[in-house]
Amino acid sequence: MPIILNNLVEPRLDIMEALELKFHIHQIVDAIQNEQVLQTLYDFLKSKENEKDGSLWESLNEEQKKEVMLAFEESEDEGNLVDAKTVFRNFR
After folding, report:
1. Rounded to an integer, what distance in angstroms lies between the CA atom of residue 58 and that of residue 80?
2. What sign for the dihedral angle of Cα 39, 2, 55, 67?
3. Model confidence at 1, in pLDDT bands (50, 70, 90)?
4. Which of 5, 10, 40, 41 has the smallest set of CB atoms within 10 Å of its CB?
């Protein structure tokens, strides 16, 4: 199922190669005008820079893991998705 961001249809992330994924991330970041959102994104990415794979998942308790998996399953239904424009509108 494609992902819709800013009226662009993006291929599924699980089949996207790293360079292509980075390109699309740069496009999204370039479109963000809110400095607070950019700072939050920067802080998040910086904090994850040296983190080992899987450490976030391992830090979750069983209830939190179940909630993440439920959210993932619900995201498979396109009717449950919200486009990025609507989400980012709340940050402006």
Report:
1. 27
2. positive
3. very low
4. 40
The pTM of the full predicted model, rounded to 2 decimals, is 0.42
Residue 15: C-alpha distances to residues 24, 49, 55, 71, 78 (Å): 13, 22, 23, 20, 18
Dump pLDDT digits (tens) for 38-68.
999 999 888 878 777 777 888 899 999 999 9
> What whole-number distance in Å separates Cα of residue 21 and Cα of residue 29?
12
Count other Cβ atoms within 10 Å, centred on residue 70.
10
Q: Phi and psi dihedrals of 76, rounded to 5?
A: -70, -20
